Amino acid sequence: MDKFIIRGGKKLSGRVRISGAKNASLALMPAALLAGGTFHLSNTPGLQDVATMSSLLKTMGMKIDLNGDVLTLDTRGVNKHEAPYAHVKKMRASIYVLGPLIARYGKAKVSLPGGCAWGPRPVNLHIEGLKKLGAEIKLERGYIVAKAKQLTGAKIHFDISSVGATGNVMMAAVLAKGTTLITNAAIEPEITALAEFLVKMGARINGIGTNQLEIEGVDELHPADFETIPDRIEAGTFLTAAAITGGRVTLENVNPEHFSAVTAKLEDAGCIAEVQGSNFELQAPAELKPVDATAVIYPGFPTDMQAQWIALMSIANGTSIVTDTIYTDRFKHVPELERLGADIELKKNAAIVRGVKKLTGATVMSTDLRASASLILAGLVAEGETEVLRVYHLDRGYEAIEKKLRAIGADIERVSGKEY
Ligand code: EPZ
Known about the structure:
Bound molecules: ligand EPZ
Number of strands: 24
CATH topology of the largest domain: UDP-n-acetylglucosamine1-carboxyvinyl-transferase, Chain
Distance between the termini: 6 Å
Shape: elongated
């Protein structure tokens, strides 16, 4: 297992190119199951999660190769309709194969992501939505076993706005007979990108970008090429790195509209931001103001930036409250940040962050993707040396993060090898 060693105190400055969006790629790739032929997905990020999705789709018979940032998928050999536990336990997004498999092949056997359908990371909205389209679904020994001769359009309302459930049901509805109306659909940019890709494949979808999607089912779809949207969370993470180190960074190849809530918070904290077409420049202030943040659905402040925001606020000049309304238990980074000297009090799904003058380097443990990012950010500003262990969590969702950070002045190195 690799670890990072970071020597804090360097102001970041320079330009960094943001990669394609992990959470778009993880939906676009399984969408290719909906048609036979060859697809090209450009601006695909080189991430562990993309490799995991690739290996899952290959076990189904899909031919996939990544050349630079162009992912080529040939779906003509797909002959297996299962997502085994080995894959799904590594990555929850594997469940995105469920909708396309039922829609195109009439059957699917997909492992539940750890736990039960209604457990810690539930998938009940996926199952209930697909049942409304006419799929027969049983839960057997930790697997979702589904079959459907022909899906039929339906009215589906999501009680909770769910990115994954919206994506799965939309990918099934495009081949259903008749019209499907999805209300309270997720409007995250990655879902909008998926809808646009499906339309390029011949699907008929109205209301794209809104929380009401009307889908006219078609008999068949065809392959298409698509450029993956930039990763708004990677962008927000690098902006927060500039802010926490007091630096000045320009992001290249971003869509600033996709992280406007993060920009607003950074400006409230005293940063100066400037949109330059598809580039975005941020200048940090000498001293950060404390700014409350509440993670909500898009276009609000994203839950995937909650950990990074707590890291930033840990050295602000005052107290702030960071609340997560999406995942009320997503705070495993807090005890690790406290090892670096942060002063944080957890109260249910909120963190009360009392800014301290300085953080001090220590050994800390990554627990999940965005928690790891928050530890890197804190290490960049902590005095002395910080060791971040188990950085495989980071490699799931950030392409070559240490190389990108070094290129803008961070003192960070990856140490590979033995058990840490
Ligand atoms: C997507 O996960 C993202 N992952 C997550 O990013 C992100 O945190 C999340 O959306 C919220 O924005 C991908 O896109 C691959 P949800 P997803 O269904 O689809 C509840 C990262 O760091 N829910 O929108 O799994 C759920 O418990 C990852 O890149 C149900 O109750 O999230 C949560 O409270 C982490 N039943 C809320 O909805 C369901 O059937 C939102 O979850 C499904 C979800």
